[in-house]
Amino acid sequence: MTDEFSFSQIASADEPVLDIVFIHGLTGDPHETWLSDSGEEYWPQWLFDEFPSTAIYTLGYPASVFAKWAKKEMDIFERATSALDYMVAKGIGNRPLVFVTHSLGGILAKTIVRKSCDSDDADWKKIAEQLRLIAFLATPHTGASLASVLKAVVPRFSSKHVELLSNDTGILEDINSHYRSFVNGRDDLKTVVYYEKYKTSGAQVVSRDSADPGVSGTTPVATDKDHINICKPRDKDDPVYAGLENHIKITLVSVMDEAVSDIASFGDSDDYSVKADHDRRDLLEKLIAADREHEYETANNYQSGFARNYLKLGLHTPAREQNDRLLSEVEQRFVTHIFHPLICQSGTEEEIRTSLQSKVIDPLCQKYDDKNGFSEKTVLRALYYLTEQCHIRWDAPS
After folding, report:
1. Which of 23, 43, 115, 389 is the most buried (most CB within 10 A)?
2. Are residue 243 and residue 309 in the same domain, yes or no?
3. Which band of pLDDT confidence, cut at 50, 70 and 90, is reported for residue 314?
């Protein structure tokens, strides 16, 4: 168990597009809580390896079971205020945000959201405004069984945190009532819930009813875990980890779409009909530098076809605007998922090809699948056109 407050960056892109904050529970630790089942791997790093355009953080705070030790600890509202102020000081709230929480950590996250919503400080308010996904792993929204057991067995030693989890005061339901109101008014915020089916110390700590926050569109998912190992995946195929990774992927795609829409709304967006100034090499020179000379004939045919159609559209037609949005999104996805994390970091050809398919081609085909004539070839034509127009490159800067 940690005995001090901490907020640590685990990994980060140079210019992250999404912040992910892990918050542990009662008697937890910002490192030990998030170890894999084997105890050998720190699985928040797995997420960064999968999503290198993010920034990963952990929040640590003392939360003891025993009243003697908990006397000097902050209550949930004090801790939420303290954490909110510190996270804002560290830049959290400037980008879309994800909370991954365990047990009491979920209650703390909801209290942080409440403090953010109620604040008159514009920076504090941004935490709630930027929240896009919150994952509750075994968080009791209406009371935890083990907390009630502890109160009955060792009433003189049970801390204020145990008191909160038992919900005898009604605080737990009050916090959750605010959260329900907050979430049900947000179409851009997803709530994900996992709960344990196995007992811990003879009791199922968080039942399905307790795990359900009552949020529209949220279905609690049962796991073959107990209260402790629900946040300790055995590997990347573990159901909890795989589900969480998928929800973060969906969130990241949505965030990227928002960013592209924002870019397209400004009048000073890139003019893709002219070459950019920063790299005036032609398509062949770029492919030779990246050991892709064998792609030139196909690449040149693709970019030429795209260019002919693009230049026919005129400057201010709906079709031209649609092509500009496509080019902007292809460029951003390529730079975020391919160029910086792979090309600049000496990624293998297989890694580049796989990421190009899963992070650029597939999401765009899914997004534009209702547009007549849109295909994987459309994305490739746009990619090679952007290469010819000096907006992207396939080799690392020297």
Report:
1. 23
2. no
3. low
Beta carbons of 151 and 163 less than 8 angstroms apart: yes
Burial of 189 (0-12, 13-18, 19+ CB in 10 A): buried
Query: In terms of pLDDT, which residue wins out, 160 or 207?
Result: 207
CA distance 332 to 28: 38
Residue 70 near residue 76, CB atoms below 8 Å? no
Q: Which range (9-13, 238-242, 346-350, 366-370) has the least confidence?
A: 366-370
SS3 (DSSP) at 173: helix
Per-residue pLDDT at 72 exceeds 90: no
Tokens of 60: 């640590």
Cβ atoms of residues 256 and 18 within 8 Å:
no
Mean pLDDT confidence for 94-107 = 94
Query: Residues of the chain with pLDDT > 70: what percent?
Result: 83
Query: Is the same domain home to 232 and 377?
Result: no
| CB contact at 8 A, 232 and 296 | no
CA 319 vs. chain centroid, Å, equals 33
Name the helix (H) or strand (E) containing 86: helix 76-89
φ, ψ of residue 372 to 5 degrees: the values are -60, 130
Phi, psi of 62 (to 5 degrees): -70, 130
Number of other CB atoms surrounding residue 304 within 10 Å: 15
For residue 195, tell me if it sits in a domain.
yes
* 3-class DSSP assignment, residue 75: coil
Domain membership of residue 91 as a residue range: 6-258
Nearest Cα neighbor of 142 from 115, 116, 114, 179 is 179
Distance CA 95, CA 282 (A): 35
Tell how many helices (H) and how many strands (E) occur in the chain. Answer: 16, 7
Reported as a single tens digit per residue, the pLDDT across 250-291 is 998 888 766 655 544 444 456 787 777 767 788 899 999 999
Assess if residue 266 is contained within a domain: no
The pTM of the full predicted model, rounded to 2 decimals, is: 0.66
Considering only CA atoms, which of 31, 50, 33 is closest in space to residue 244? 50
* Residue 193 and residue 57 in one domain: yes
Greater pLDDT, 113 or 75: 113
Percentage above 90 pLDDT, the chain: 50
Contact 38, 234 (CB under 8 A): yes
Looking at per-residue pLDDT, the higher value among 196 and 154 belongs to 196
Cα dist. 349→179, 237, 288 in Å?
46, 25, 15
Name the maximum alpha-carbon separation found in the chain: 80
